[in-house]
Amino acid sequence: MNKKTTTNTFNKIPLANLRLGMYVVSVTDNNNTEFKSEGYISTQESISQLEKAQITYVTVDTKKEKAVEQVDRVLSEITVTKAKAEQRKKPEITIDQEMRKANKLYNSARDLQKHILSSVKLNKSLQIVDIGDTTDSLVDSVYRNQDALSCLTRLQSKDSYLFEHSLNVAILMSIFAKYLGLDKRIIQQLTLGAFLHDIGKVLLPNDILLKRSTLTKKEENIMRSHVALGLKLLEDSPEISHIAMQMVAEHHERLDGSGYPKGLKGKEISKYGKMIAIVDSYDAMTCERPYKSAVSPISAFKTLVAESPLKYDEELVEKFIQCLGVYPVGTLVKLNSGKLGLISKLNKRKPLHPFVKVFYNTRLNQAISIEELDLSNSKYKDQIDCCIKPEDFNINLLGFFKNAFID
Question: Could you read off the pLDDT of 221-231 as tens digits, one per residue?
Answer without folding.
Answer: 999 999 999 99
